[in-house]
């Protein structure tokens, strides 16, 4: 399949994502902020110019407008996953049963409610600051597209009803799903009303603009080479200079998989996307005109949404794991991964077989042993960190930014008291066992999903390999 289709596939890795190119063009293609040169001092140093780092900086400027904040980014702000993702903004309602198992019912609901703030919060933020991030609160529908496999969400829906939150996830029958998007492969679905879409790179670049207006010093193209804590200061060394701060925030997403102190708890995984030519008339024919977010029920999930100019942006978690924290071309240039994404697109939306795919790109996502963020502090409260969003950080990164800002200034103590905050994720196996195991499980998951797509029962061996992580206490497989 991949070899036959390869000549017609868009080639990943040739340029920045379609999202980021569009956002930069709308911004007038600005030059990057100058790299750090010489020595500077600050109250807070933030490493990472993606959503998490910029939200942390934003909330600090809200509560401490006179604080001296410096943000260091190795590329440009939004150049990493924040400018490449699908733009799905939602909370953690599907995680409530697992959260309840770990922390109890009331704590699970408290976490979910705080996480859900991000949906309306991002919309209000865009309005307040005049950021045209294509925000649209239209809901999120997960569909069962397996021809002979029943859906898997009954227990979650029942659990939420029992907790008094039954309106947050609602089962949708096949007719209701077809009214959202009339694909012959879609069966029933699970509806999350509280979800919104954004243009991910416009949101990131809007954050950057607001921070600059508020006096945050941003240095792009500035890679931090070392971080040490001593004499009550955090000291950072870059290629061109040094920064010293009272406290620091480490917001580096999948790059945490190669950072000392975190590499044993974070796995970098590749996710890829394609985008179609504008097809507004075809979308109207499907009835998919409300801006709803869609995904399927594969473990190697396909996620897709429309744009304001009538395109479909379609992604899938079908990439490979990286080795020993190295972020290289595995995450940006994998044509085999793009072939899988395109095959999933054609399978889920067969009526669009002739639609041209104009671009493709990829990037790393950060996965922890429980597929849940790790947010905490170290070095006696001098260094704060957040990572592990498993590809779903467009919304929860705002919550993480609020928590990180609270670590710095204590402004919202209820947030730092949430039970998952400060909880370390499980240690992952050492290399090369981690790399070999992740690749083996990934291939089993893809082939299991492919079998279910074809209406076949996966072999016992595939099912066994796919479930191996669970046997060792991880949530990397089924």
What would a concise description of this structure say?
By secondary structure, the protein is α/β, with parallel strands linked by helices. Helices cover 34% and strands 21% of the residues.
List the helices and strands and how they pair.
Layout: H1 2-5, H2 18-26, E1 38-47, H3 51-63, E2 69-72, E3 88-90, H4 96-103, H5 105-129, E4 140-143, H6 154-162, E5 170-172, H7 174-180, E6 189-192, E7 195-197, H8 200-213, E8 217-219, E9 224-230, E10 233-238, E11 241-250, E12 267-276, H9 280-286, E13 293-295, E14 302-306, E15 312-316, H10 335-348, E16 357-367, E17 374-378, E18 383-387, H11 396-409, H12 413-416, H13 433-453, H14 460-471
Parallel strand pairs: 1-2, 1-11, 2-8, 4-13, 11-18
Antiparallel strand pairs: 3-7, 4-6, 5-6, 9-10, 10-11, 12-15, 12-16, 13-14, 14-15, 17-18
């Amino acid at each position: 399949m991949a070899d036959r289709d390869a000549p017609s596939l868009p080639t990943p890795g040739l340029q920045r994502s379609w999202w980021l190119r569009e956002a930069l063009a709308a911004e007038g293609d600005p030059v990057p902020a100058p790299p750090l040169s010489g020595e500077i001092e600050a109250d807070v140093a933030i490493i990472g110019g993606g959503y998490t780092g910029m939200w942390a900086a934003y909330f600090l400027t809200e509560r401490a407008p006179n604080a001296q904040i410096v943000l260091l980014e190795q590329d440009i702000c939004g150049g990493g996953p924040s400018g490449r993702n699908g733009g799905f903004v939602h909370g953690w309602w599907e995680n409530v049963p697992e959260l309840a198992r770990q922390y109890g019912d009331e704590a699970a609901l408290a976490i979910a409610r705080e996480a859900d703030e991000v949906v309306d919060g991002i919309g209000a933020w865009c309005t307040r600051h005049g950021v045209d991030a294509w925000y649209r609160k239209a809901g999120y529908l997960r569909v069962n597209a397996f021809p002979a496999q029943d859906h898997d969400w009954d227990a979650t829906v029942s659990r939420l009803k029992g907790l008094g939150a039954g309106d947050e996830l609602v089962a949708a029958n096949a007719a209701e799903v077809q009214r959202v998007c009339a694909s012959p492969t879609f069966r029933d679905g699970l509806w999350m009303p509280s979800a919104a879409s954004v243009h991910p790179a416009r949101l990131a670049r809007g954050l950057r603009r607001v921070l600059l207006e508020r006096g945050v010093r941003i240095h792009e193209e500035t890679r931090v080479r070392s971080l040490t804590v001593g004499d009550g200061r955090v000291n950072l060394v870059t290629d061109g200079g040094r920064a010293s701060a009272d406290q620091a925030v480490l917001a580096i997403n999948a790059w945490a998989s190669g950072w000392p102190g975190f590499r044993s708890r974070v796995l970098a995984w590749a996710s890829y996307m394609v985008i179609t030519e504008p097809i507004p008339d075809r979308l109207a024919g499907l009835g998919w005109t409300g801006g709803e977010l869609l995904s399927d029920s594969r473990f190697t999930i396909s996620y897709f949404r429309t744009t304001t100019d009538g395109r479909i942006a379609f992604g899938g978690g079908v990439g490979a794991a990286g080795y020993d924290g190295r972020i290289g071309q595995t995450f940006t240039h994998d044509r085999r991964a793009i072939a899988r994404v395109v095959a999933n697109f054609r399978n889920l939306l067969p009526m669009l077989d002739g639609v041209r795919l104009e671009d493709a790109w990829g990037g790393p996502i950060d996965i922890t042993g429980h597929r849940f963020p790790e947010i905490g502090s170290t070095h006696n409260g001098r260094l704060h960190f957040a990572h592990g969003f498993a590809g779903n950080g467009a919304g929860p990164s705002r919550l993480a930014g609020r928590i990180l800002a609270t670590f710095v200034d204590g402004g919202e103590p209820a947030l730092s008291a949430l039970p998952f905050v400060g909880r370390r994720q499980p240690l992952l196996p050492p290399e090369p066992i981690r790399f070999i195991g992740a690749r083996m499980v990934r291939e089993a998951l893809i082939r299991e999903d492919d079998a279910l797509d074809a209406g076949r029962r996966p072999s016992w061996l595939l099912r066994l390999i796919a479930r191996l992580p669970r046997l060792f206490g991880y949530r990397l497989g089924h």
